[in-house]
Write a structure and sequence with these properties.
Elements lengths: L3 H46 L3 H42 L4 E3 L6 H7 L8 E12 L2 E17 L5 E17 L7 E6 L1 H6 L3 H5 L6 E3 L4 H6 E5 L4 H5 L2 H14 L3 E6 L2 E7 L16 H20 L11
Antiparallel strand pairs: 1-2, 2-3, 3-4, 4-9, 5-7, 5-8, 6-7, 8-9
Helix pairs in contact: 1-2, 2-9, 8-9
Length: 317
């Protein structure tokens, strides 16, 4: 892991000049938005002054459409340049053997294979896909946003469609160096945190298998474990791995869900913000932004190292 001093040195020597060049693009986007927005409002106001609501409404609609098209094109160009010159460079600093694609994400089939989420998504997208190897462990991760929809009809026969987020955040899977016979799930223990000991009754009600009680009290406060059987989860969740999960949860302060299926470990880290997107309405020349990007990518290295995925205690037959 790069120290803050090393990262700042790279920022000053390399990334800062790139961000200063990109700042010209950002300011052009803002300027374009302000000018076109101002013109649109002025024409709409003129229509109202002339007592012509149709003119005002038409000017407003056409102006907003033109504004959206022009600004979107500039924002997309800025976004792709930022990711290619800044985000990709931060990844290279962590490990230059990792491959990165700004417009790709974890395939839906891998997301479903984790079985962490019960809802099948009706809308699924993501970006910032990274694939690589740390020592002997191969991994993939990306930002993901999955949603399902519901439709309802009111008393007048109007149909309403609503979209509900299933997961938004960083999704990761890696080789677990053993072919797992059953399935094990480690999920945030929201029931006990909300309802105390009474919440333990809710823990038992799950479609993910049998409730597994473990001896690590600190781990039990943060997570609840389910498995298709009782024995294998106890071999998977060693004291070292349980301690690592607690440490990672405390360090990043996000809800984290794990599953061990087949020969893979899957991890979903809930993060509501877009992690690797450039700012538009403030300066992009900030070391803090680079540091934040670095910290999100670095969590993958920490997961692999802390979960001992490179310690080949078990080997596949």
């Amino acid at each position: 892991m790069k120290s803050i001093e090393e990262l700042r040195g790279v920022y000053e020597q390399n990334l800062k000049s790139r961000l200063e060049d990109l700042e010209i693009q950002r300011k052009t986007i803002v300027k374009t938005g302000l000018i076109h927005g101002g013109i649109t409002l002025a024409v709409a106001a003129l229509g109202l002054f002339m007592d012509s609501p149709p003119l005002a409404i038409g000017a407003l609609i056409v102006g907003l459409i033109v504004l959206a098209i022009r600004v979107y094109k500039k924002m997309e160009a800025y976004r792709l340049t930022y990711k290619g010159q800044v985000v990709a460079e931060v990844i290279r600093l962590i490990d230059d053997s990792w491959s990165y694609s700004s417009e790709t994400c974890i395939p839906k089939a891998d997301y479903m294979r984790s079985k962490i989420f019960t809802h099948r998504p009706d809308r699924y997208n993501g970006d910032d896909y990274v694939k690589g190897t740390i020592d002997k462990t191969d991994f993939e991760f990306s930002e993901l946003h999955s949603e399902y929809k519901t439709t309802s009809t009111d008393s007048k026969g109007n149909t309403r469609t609503e979209w509900h987020t299933i997961f938004k955040g960083l999704f990761f899977h890696a080789d677990f160096n053993k072919e797992i016979k059953g399935e094990t799930f480690v999920l945030p223990d929201t029931a006990e945190k909300l309802f105390g000991k009474f919440g333990q009754r809710f823990q038992k009600m799950s479609s993910k298998g049998k409730l597994i009680k473990l001896e690590n009290q600190e781990f039990e406060k943060e997570f609840v474990v389910y498995g298709s059987e009782q024995i294998e989860p106890r071999y998977i969740l060693t004291p070292t791995i349980m301690e690592a999960m607690v440490n990672i949860k405390k360090q990043y302060k996000h809800n984290m869900s794990f599953s061990f299926v087949g020969s893979r470990v899957f991890c979903a880290i809930s993060i509501q913000k877009n992690m690797f997107e450039p700012a538009i309405f403030r300066s992009g020349v900030r070391f803090e932004d680079v540091q934040e990007i670095h910290s999100y990518f670095e969590v993958i290295r920490i997961l692999i190292q802390e979960l001992n995925l490179n310690t080949r205690i078990w080997t596949k037959e």
